[in-house]
Each structure stands twice: as C-alpha cells, then as structure tokens.
Amino acid sequence: METELPAMLRARGRVLPDDRFIFHSSRMRMKRVTPDELRSMNAQTDRATRELADLRPDVVATACLVAIMAQGPKHHLLAENEIGEILAEEGQRPPVISSAGALVSGVKAIGAKKVAIMTPYMKPLTKMVADYLEDSGIEVVDTLSFEVPDNLDVAALDPERLINEWKRLNISNADAIVASACVQMPSLAALARIENASSLPVLSAATATTFEILTSLGVTPTVPDAGYLLSPEFAAHRIRQTAAETAAC
Q1: Contact 157/184 with Cβ under 8 angstroms?
Q2: Which among 139, 209, 161 has a CA at the least distance from the CA of 181?
Q3: What is the third-level CATH fold of 4-222?
Q4: Which of 8, 130, 148, 182 is catalytic?
Q5: Is 64 a residue of the active site?
Q6: CA neighbor of 219 nearest in space, from 14, 61, 10, 18
Q7: Among this protein's residues, is 249 annotated catalytic?
Q8: In this predicted model, what pLDDT tens digit does every residue of 115-165 receive, in sequence order?
Q9: Positive or negative CA dihedral for 109, 113, 117, 122?
C-alpha cells in the first residue's frame, strides 16, 4: 500500500499533471503472516481509522487482503462498513475500499470468471484466499504460494522473480492472472511483462485497489504500465460499454 499505490499515483501524474494526490497511511502492526497475528492486526482498525479521520480524506483504503479474507466469506463488506462507521463518528463520510473487496471487483470488472493467482502466503492462507474468491463467484484454476511467513521478507521479494514464476501456473483455462494477491508483495514492475508474455489480462491487489480509489474519486482510472485493469484501452472499453447500456435503456 505504501509503495506501489503512491508509485501508481505518481506515474499517473506524469501523464495527467492536473491530477494531484496526497497519500497518508496509518499502520496496523503485524510481523508474521499467521491467522493469530492477522486477527490481532484487524483489532487495530479503530485506532488506525481515527488517525486518518483527522486528515478529512477523500477516500480511505485498507489492507492487508488476507487479514480480511481469512475471516470468512464476504468479510470485506463488514470491514468496510466498520471503517465507515468509525469515520462517521469522526464526522467524515468518504468512500471506504478494502484491497480484498477491490480484488474481487477488479477481476469482475474485466469480465474474468477464472483466474490463476500468485501469493507470498503459506499454502493454508493461499487456500483461504482462493476459497474467498470462489465464494465471490470467481473460479481459481491454479495457485502458486511462495510460503514467506515474515511480513518484512514479503515486502523485500523481488518482482523480477514473478517474470518467470508465473510460468509455473496452469493458465490453460484462466481468463486472467493475479500476479500478487497481496499488496505487500511487490509486483507492479512485472505486470505489463507478464501480460505481454501470457496474452492474458494481469492485475494485482494493489492495481485493483488503485482502480477502486480512482473510480471512487470520479476520475478516469488509468495508470501507465500497470496492467489491463488500469489501461486506457480498458477505460475506453468501459465508456463504450456504459454508452451502449444507456442507449439500450
């Protein structure tokens, strides 16, 4: 969240200089990516949300993805609602986005029904993510777990590794690839290259979150070299699709 989201907003600003963004964060502590620590991290939501409320933000986004997905199907709706209620207590009512909900929405936005995913998690947590997507109506045709339990080690993973690792996925029935189902695992530098090599749309939890942020702000959700979801081509497709639906009505 604190590296790739600002990087995407800066990249967007280089081609659309009139759009300027200020990014703030409040951290919820976690050292090892385990179910117990994920629950402990979620318990810090109130404190972190109130810290951000003082900024009067235009939009609030929360991660990590697996901390929400590990709590059971559709938990992102409860998490987003909880944050919204805390913000309302502080006199703020901005849109609230979760990386978990954003990934579900992003996959569906591009029309993908079947995905292959890569995660840094231990296999049981990857299964929770896959089960969560399946419950949301997205078939997970294959998964690849890098099994890195330490959260700082996850952040230090080299995105260049993904350029070759995605080839271990069975994508024969996939409509899209989720190159990183975790905003902590870097993938931005690899997305366009995997997309070119695989001939499939490629997205990540971070690009899906950025897509939701930009959409909620009412600006065109485009970022250079960040995969199909944030491409001008997809933005143009959505405009044509909306126009066709309006004409049909």
Answers
A1: no
A2: 209
A3: Rossmann fold (3.40.50)
A4: 182
A5: yes
A6: 18
A7: no
A8: 999 999 999 999 999 999 999 999 999 999 999 988 889 889 999 999 999
A9: positive
